[in-house]
Amino acid sequence: MTDGVAMAERSEQSAAWRSGAGGDELLIVRNLRTHFFTRDGAVPAVDDISFSIARGEVLGIVGESGSGKSVTARSIMRLVPLPGRIVSGEVWFKGQNLVDLTESEMQHIRGAQIGMVLQEPMTSLNPVLTIGDQVGELYRHHPDRAPRGRSIRQAVLDILARVRIPDAARRVAEYPLHFSGGMRQRVSIAMATACRPDLVIADEPTTALDVTIQAQVLELLLELRDEFGVSVLFITHDLGVVAKICDSVAVMYAGRIVEYADVESIFERPRHPYTRALLRSLPQLGKRLPRLPSIEGQPPDLGALPRGCAFAPRCPSAIDRCREAEPEPTAIGAAYVRCFVAADELLQAGLRTTPRGDGHAS
Amino acid sequence: MPAERTAPAAAEILVLRGLRKYFQASGLAAIGRRRPPIRAVDGVDFTVRRGENFGLVGESGSGKTTIAKLILRLEPPTDGEILFEGEDVNALSGRALKDFRKATHVVFQDPNSSLSPRMRVADIVGEPLAVQGVRGARRRERVAEVLALVGLNPSAARRYPHEFSGGQRQRVAVARAIVAEPKLIVLDEPVSALDVSIRAQILNLLRDLQDRLNLTYVTIAHDLAVVYQACDTIGVMYLGKLVELAPSEALYREPRHPYTRILLSAIPKPDPRLRHTERLPLTGEIPSPAAPPPGCRFHPRCPIAVERCAVDEPVWRELEPGHWVACHLA
Q1: Contact in structure between A118 and A70 (CB atoms under 8 Å)
Q2: Residues A33, A85: contact at Cβ < 8 Å?
C-alpha cells in the first residue's frame, strides 16, 4: 500500500509543524468553555476547545454562523457579552492566564498587546473623532507603547503611512465617514497594530470588502506579520482566504473545534467529514459542475444539540456510535480531529496505535 | 410589435439597449450646491436568452443592483430601453403591466429582511397569488405545491420566518418567487448571506427549479466563483458599464479585459499551494460614479493602459461570437 506509506510520510510533516511547540507559543488555549446562560438553559457557544498560536503564526478559525468562532475571539479578549461567561479552561498569553486577570489588568493587554480588527470598521471607529485623534488616543492610553523620540502626531502619520493611507498628512484631520470601506479597514488595522501588539485578532476583517480590496487588506496583514512578527488569529467563513494567508486552521462546528491542523493538511487531506464536505461544496473557478456536492440539513440549534456528535445528523459517514457518544479529540502529532470514523481511518492507516479519545496533544 | 407577441418562444427574453440611470444627489449632500448626477448605469447593452442563467458581476458601485431594479421596473431608466419578450417594459400599462409583474420576480440577498416577520409563510408565499385574485383552496394548494418544490415541509406554511434558519428562509423566498409561475427571476446575491454549507443547497435548488419550470435567471453577485458555477453567460461591470461579456467558461479561460483578469486573480483560491501566485496589481479604489474618468473609465487603475485609453472611450465590440469587450487593447 504505497498510499499508506505516503500518508505516514505526510504525517511526519504534520508532526514537524509545531515541533517548536512550548518554546515559541504566544497563545495557548486549553479546554476553553464559554456558555451563555439563557432562560431556556445553558447554551455551549464554545465547548472544550484547545489550540495554540506561535509567534508570527497566522491561525485561521473557520466556521459558520453560530459555530462559536467570534465567541472564541471574545473569550480571549475577555469581552464575552452577558449572559455569556467563561465556564472553564485556560487562555495562556505570554505566560499569563488571561482568564484569571482583573479587568484593569486586561485593559493593559487589550489594544496594546492584543489588537483587534472587526468586520465592520465603523463599529470600532468613533464617528465623531478625527482619524488622527483616535489613532493618537491609543498612544495616550498606552504611553509605554508609543514610539520613542516621535511626537504623537509623527507616530500617527508613521502608522497611517505603514498601512498605506494615501496623503496621510491631510487625511488625519478627516472623520471615518470620509473614508471608503477599504480605507476604514486600513485605519482599523493601523489602530490594531499601532502599539506593536504580539497578537492581532481579526474577526471577518475582509468579509464586507470587495474582492480586490480584500486582496490588498490581506496582503497588508501578511506584511505586518513579516515585518513585526505579530501573530494573527483570523476568523473567517471563507476557505479561500484561509488557504491564502493561514499557517494553521481550526475548523469549528457547533461550539467545538472538530479539526485542527496545518493548512496543507486541512486542504489536501482533511480528516473530518465536515471539513471534507465543506471543501467539496465550494464553488470553484475552473471546475464547473452540473451540481455542487452539498451538505444536507441545517446547522444545529446550540440550545438543543443532538446526542453524540453534533454533525452526525448531516454526516454522510455517520455510524451508530456517532449518535450515541461524543467523540473526543484524536491526536495526529500536534493536530487533532474529533470524529470516531476519522479515528478509525487513522488507526487502519497505521497512523495511530493508541485508541481514540485520549485527549489533546499537549 | 404584434408579431413577437404571437411568438413568445423567441430566443431572446430580455434585451437591454443603451440603458442609463442617473441619480441626482438628494438629502443633506445636495444642500447648497448643485452636484453632477451619479451615473449608476451609463450605457449598458445585453441580451438574455430564454432559459439561461445570465450573471452580472461587479464590485460595489458598479451599478449591478441598479440594473436589477431597472429590469424589474422598480425604477425608470434615464435613457435607453428594456425589452421583455419584445415589449418596452417602461411603456407597459394596465393589463400588460400586470402580466409583466406576474412574469417577473426577484429573490433578494437577505431573507431576514426581505420576508415580513409578522406574516405566516403561507401568506408570504401566497401573496403574489393574492394580488392576482387567487383565493381559498386554490391558493392553499398552490402554496403547498411550491413549498414541496423548494424542499420545505407542508407544516412550514403555518410558521413564521423567524422559526427558520437562514437557508430555509431563502427557500421560502424562492417559493414566493416561483409561486405565480414567472418567466424571469432576478436573483440579487441569492447566496451571499447564507452559511457556506447552505450555499450549495440553494444553488442546486435554483438550478433544479430552472430546469423543471423553464425559468430564465438574471443572477447578480459579487462572487465570481458563484456566478461562474451558476451562470451560462457572465457580464462584468465596472463603474456603470459592462467591460466584458462572455460564456462563463470563456470568461474564465480567456478573459480579455484587464479588469476581468484582475478580478479573477484577486479571488483567493481554496488551495494553499497557490497562495504565492502573484495577484495582478490593482491600485487605488473605484472612482466616484458622479465623475467617471474620461476615455476608458478603468484607465487610471489599469496596469496596461496607454495614452489613447485616457482620451477615447473604447467601443463595445464582439471579438468572437458571444464574447464582447470594451478595451482598446483586447
Answers
A1: no
A2: no
Q: What is the pLDDT of residues B36-60, one digit of tens each?
A: 888 999 999 999 999 999 999 998 8
Instruction: Count CB pairs under 8 A between chains A and B.
Output: 131
Residues of B with CB under 8 A from a CB of A: 59-60, 165-168, 195-201, 203-204, 207, 222-226, 228-230, 248-249, 252, 262-264, 266-275, 279, 282, 285-286
The three three-digit cell numbers of residue B76, written as one number: 425608470
| Whether the predicted pLDDT of B100 surpasses 90 | yes
Q: How far is CA A29 from the centre of its chain?
A: 12
Compare CB distances from B59 to A210, A267, A292 and report the shortest one's residue. A210
Q: Lowest mean pLDDT: which of A56-60, A79-83, A302-306, B22-26?
A: B22-26
Nearest CB neighbour to A292, from listed B167, B200, B273: B200
Residue B31 pLDDT > 90: no
Helix axes A131-141, A181-193, angle to 10 degrees: 10
Task: Name the residue facing B272 among A181, A263, A277 (closest C-beta).
Answer: A263
C-beta atoms of B196 and A243 within 8 A: no
- Kindly identify which residue of chain A lies nearest to residue B227, measuring between CA atoms: A283
E strand segments, B89-148: 104-107
Provide the whole-model pTM: 0.87
Helix, strand, or coil (residue A349): coil
Given an 8 Å threshold on Cβ–Cβ distance, is B230 in contact with A283?
Answer: yes
The number of residues making up chain A comes to 362
3-state secondary structure A228-296: HCCEEEEEECCHHHHHHHCCEEEEEECCEEEEEEEHHHHHHCCCCHHHHHHHHCCCECCECCCCCCCCC
